Amino acid sequence: MSLDRTDVDKIAHLARLQIEEQDTPEYAQNLSNILDLVNQMQSVDTTDVLPMAHPLDAVQRLRSDAVTEENQRENLQSVAPAVENGLFQVPKVIE
Amino acid sequence: MEWEAVIGLEIHAQLATKSKIFSGASTAFGAEPNTQACAVDLALPGTLPVFNEEALRMAVKFGLAVDAEIGKKSVFDRKNYFYPDLPKGYQTSQLFEPIVGIGHIDITLEDGTEKRIGVTRAHLEEDAGKSLHDEFPGMTGIDLNRAGTPLLEIVSEPDMRSAEEAVAYVRKIHSIVTSLGICDGNMAEGSFRCDCNVSVRPMGQEELGNRTETKNINSFRFIEKAIVGEIERQIDLIEDGGRVEQATRLYDADKNETRSMRSKEEANDYRYFPCPDLLPIVIDDEYIEAVRETLPELPDARKARFIEEYKLSDYDAMVLSADYNMAAYFETIAKASKDAKLSANWVMGELSKLLNQNDLDISSSPVNADQLGGLLSRIKDDTISGKIAKQVFEVMWIEGGTADEIIEAKGLKQVTDSGAIEKIVDEVITNNQPQVDQYVNAEPDKRGKMVGFFMGQVMKASQGKANPGQVQGMLKKKLDALTG
Fold first, then answer.
1. Distance from CA of B235 to the nearest CA of A (A)
2. B144 with B87: CB under 8 angstroms?
């Protein structure tokens, strides 16, 4: 299975990655190689094998419903590029 | 041509846990921005989610209440999209193996007909933060307090055929989640919101039409209006030769219309996959049965009990039992006043009227159940008449206070002193000689009705405070004495 230029552009857009046009063929090739590997695995007969959601044969441990976190806004916002009135500031986004 | 609407609903119920679904930050509403957003909620590198056991228990409770299959193994998936109020770049949700599978509820329509509506599934997921677009020029402010709040998304089958059915379904689900205590049901604060999928097709046609989704409607009234409007819009569009485009629409309550939000071409590709940070959730029959033991009374059982215990009519029992908070309110005043019928009439009459006029939910009523219960007790013990009680209620609504305080302060206590009543009765008889003559000259069987005029005059003269029973008796005696 091979990906073409449009597939690569779409994947890049979904991942919000900016890629140089000259690099597109190489990305297409690399990604296609990964898909080929997956295709190769697809040929294994898995008729009686249940799909698994996680490689570990373990179940989720649960947390009791208690508030354990205190307000650390000042600390946490110290690494933010822009903050005002306690809000994180980002370039305007409206759909 | 005759058209049929097909409606399916997705309801997001915010689960009433103290802490978030994957972190120990508080979920309390109304805190200062970002004071309840911890490192996990902010998706700082190296943080990992730990699942809240109470969110799981609440989801299972809901599943049992709608008679659904419970997923003994459920799995969290990542729904990938970019938006600044979603710091991880994905929402942790459940797509392939949800906690609650196929179930159903029964709704009752206004004409009494019952209809079964399928619940396709219900799954656990986290809420996103809030974007504030209007506060700063050129910038968007992000508040992540809500990020990571547990949600139960309840998806219906496309079984509804009218806005009325859709609203009945939403009310029933609302009633169930509030009765279970798993959601506070506060629609104004966004704890319970609804996405409506609507399509139309010619009556009798099997194939479904293209549907639109109207998102995040947060009142019963808006749900009805949005669906009615969307059905009309689609029919008009098709009858004018156009076609319905599959799209997401936004309901504008000010204009009472839906408008397009994003079209299919730009539709997101969420690239779901199982979340590697969370292991599968596994529960057994023992767990499920233990949860079943804790289920409280559900709306259908409550309705039956209201009919049995309070001798309410079918209709009254349905209205009063449907909303958990209204049911609790009714029971409090019914116990205080020891008169269920009077209590039912007040909750469905005066109280509901003022709540509707002010667009308020019963849980935020300015007059609480203890206040109204106290007021009804004063009707029952003849301190005030029903008419005066309405005055007291209006004062209570605006100024607060107990019935006794208001009755005392405004001097509204019913006059039962027979000397005082007799004085007013005598005055009325003296001042209305022509009517007295008519009464005396009327056929005896006509006189009963004519007492009404004098009653009115006496009540007016006493500013509504005279005890109506006493006045009636006294008038009859005195007028009949005049007929000789």
1. 27
2. yes
Q: At CA B38, angle to CA B43 and CA B140, rounded to 5? A: 70
The residue ranges of every structural domain in chain B are 3-289, 297-409, 418-482
- Tens of pLDDT, residues A29-62: 999 999 999 999 999 999 998 877 777 778 888 9
CB contacts of A89 in chain B (<8 Å) are 136, 139-142
Query: Is the pLDDT assigned to residue B265 strictly greater than 90?
Result: no
Sign of CA dihedral B227, B232, B235, B236: negative
CA atoms within 13 A on the CB side of B299: 28
Q: Does A13 touch chain B (CB under 8 A)?
A: no
CB-based contact, A6 to chain B, within 8 Å = no
Q: Which CATH architecture has domain B418-482?
A: Orthogonal Bundle (1.10)
What is d(CA A55, CA A66) in angstroms, rounded to the nearest whole number? Answer: 30
Residues of B in contact with A86 (CB under 8 A): 32-35, 143
CB pairs under 8 A between A and B: 131
B142:A77 CB<8 A: no
> Which ipTM did the prediction report?
0.86
User: For residues B148 and B41, what is the distance between their CA atoms, to the nearest angstrom?
Assistant: 6
Please give the residue of chain A at the shortest CA–CA distance from B139.
A92
Those residues with Cβ within 8 angstroms of residue A41's Cβ, 6 or more apart along the chain or in another chain: none
Residues 6+ apart with CB under 8 A from B160: B6, B7, B8, B9, B117, B166, B169
Please name the residue that has the structure tokens 């496309």. Answer: B158
State the Cα–Cα distance between residues A10 and B92, nearest whole angstrom. 23
Strand order in the sheet with B90-93: B90-93, B77-80, B273-274
Nearest residue of A to residue B150, measured between CA atoms:
A65
Q: In chain A, what are the domains?
A: 5-42 (1.10.20)
Minimum-distance CB partner of A54 among B135, B143, B280? B280
pLDDT (tens digit per residue) in B129-169: 998 888 788 899 999 999 999 999 999 999 999 999 999 99
> Kindly report the CA angle at B143 between B139 and B147, in degrees rounded to 5?
130
Rounded (10°) angle between helices B299-310 and B314-322: 130
Measured from the Cβ of residue B268, the count of other Cβ atoms closer than 10 Å reads: 13
| Closest residue to A73, CB basis, from B34, B131, B138 | B34
Residue in chain B lying closest to A79 (CA): B44
CB contact (8 A) between residue A85 and residue B36: no
* CA dihedral of B77, B79, B83, B86, whole degrees rounded to 10: -20
Q: Are B378 and B390 in contact (CB under 8 A)?
A: no
Helical segments of B261-385, H only:
285-293, 299-310, 314-322, 324-337, 340-346, 352-357, 369-380
Residue B126 to residue B436: CA distance in whole angstroms: 77
pLDDT digits (tens, 9 = 90+) for B14-73: 999 999 999 999 999 989 999 999 999 999 999 999 999 999 999 999 999 999 999 999
pLDDT at B264: 45
The token duo for B467 is: 């005890």
